[in-house]
């Protein structure tokens, strides 16, 4: 989208130990060129690596975020982490509503919305994930699902500065399958019109990432689709070489 700075973001999921920090270091070095003025980059390692990862990126444009946050600021929620804790580790972003959270932890749209509000309250940029399952696509319900998830997972106060949308067809995540460029174009155009009708100028500027089996080999085509303002990358974000190759597709 014209006038939008794309974001290339990596989601490490439940992968990565201290031994993987070399990859983050290599990414931090690899994004130091002039392309970083045009394209933002982000890696979301597991929470265990957050603090040390942000220290590694001190002098790099590579930003570090988390993969989830609790909807409350603190309290009796064993095992959870709050948006404040992420900000305290110098994380700047948090992914919310990833399909694996929606499935593994039965997260509802209402919960995703509450988490997004918690992220905003802590000053984090929230990456709100939406996307249809394979079954929903077969039944022709893709746009209905996107409409509902956008309406119910994104809070009223969302702005282009505080919120990024990630379109991740569930059937394309980790499968090597991707929608055709024209299917991606249709979904993103639909989401853009939904965002504009709800948020006006902010909706026109809000980034909409594509996610689902983005690889160095298909990045250029997918990132070139209208209204695709970057990528959310799972598997191919684990290795600096792949992540930097996708970034370099811009
Ligand atoms: C993801 O989990 O956000 C994702 C898109 O995964 P992958 O790139 O591995 O399909």
From TrEMBL:
Assigned protein family: Belongs to the triosephosphate isomerase family.
Entries under InterPro entries matching the protein: Aldolase_TIM, TIM_sf, TrioseP_Isoase_bac/euk, Triosephosphate_isomerase, Triosephosphate_isomerase_AS
Protein name: Triosephosphate isomerase
Entry's localization field: Cytoplasm
Pathway involvement of the protein, from the record: Carbohydrate biosynthesis; gluconeogenesis; Carbohydrate degradation; glycolysis; D-glyceraldehyde 3-phosphate from glycerone phosphate: step 1/1; Carbohydrate metabolism; erythritol degradation
Keywords: Cytoplasm, Gluconeogenesis, Glycolysis, Isomerase
Coiled-coil spans in chain: none
Free-text function comment from the UniProt entry: Involved in the gluconeogenesis. Catalyzes stereospecifically the conversion of dihydroxyacetone phosphate (DHAP) to D-glyceraldehyde-3-phosphate (G3P).
Catalytic activity, EC: 5.3.1.1
Gene Ontology terms for molecular function: triose-phosphate isomerase activity
Catalytic site: 98 (electrophile), 168 (proton acceptor)
Reactions the enzyme catalyzes: L-erythrulose 1-phosphate = D-erythrulose 4-phosphate; D-glyceraldehyde 3-phosphate = dihydroxyacetone phosphate
Record Pfam families: TIM
Residues binding substrate, per UniProt: 11-13, 174, 213, 234-235
This protein's record includes keyword Metal-binding: no
CDD domains: TIM
Subunit architecture: Homodimer.
The protein's enzyme class: isomerase
Keyword Nucleotide-binding: no
């Amino acid at each position: 989208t014209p006038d939008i700075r794309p974001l290339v973001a990596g989601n490490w999921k439940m992968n990565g130990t201290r031994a993987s920090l070399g990859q983050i270091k290599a990414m931090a070095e690899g994004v130091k060129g002039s392309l970083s003025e045009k394209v933002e980059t982000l890696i979301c390692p597991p929470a265990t690596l957050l603090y040390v990862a942000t220290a590694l990126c001190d002098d790099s444009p590579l930003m570090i975020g988390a993969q989830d946050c609790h909807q409350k600021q603190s309290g009796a929620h064993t095992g959870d982490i709050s948006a404040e804790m992420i900000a305290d580790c110098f994380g700047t972003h948090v992914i919310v509503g990833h399909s694996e959270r929606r499935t593994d932890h039965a997260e509802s749209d209402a919960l995703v919305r509450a988490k997004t509000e918690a992220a905003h309250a802590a000053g984090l940029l929230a990456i709100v994930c939406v996307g249809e399952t394979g079954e929903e696509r077969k039944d022709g319900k893709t746009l209905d699902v996107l409409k509902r998830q956008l309406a119910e997972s994104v809070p009223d106060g969302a702005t282009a500065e505080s919120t990024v949308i990630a379109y991740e067809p569930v059937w394309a995540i980790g499968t090597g399958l991707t929608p055709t460029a024209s299917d991606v174009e249709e979904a993103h155009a639909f989401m853009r019109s939904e965002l504009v009708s709800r948020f006006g100028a902010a909706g026109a500027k809000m980034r909409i990432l594509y996610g689902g089996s983005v690889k160095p080999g298909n990045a250029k085509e997918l990132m070139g689709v209208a209204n695709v303002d970057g990528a959310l990358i799972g598997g191919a974000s684990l290795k600096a070489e792949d992540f930097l190759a996708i970034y370099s597709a811009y």
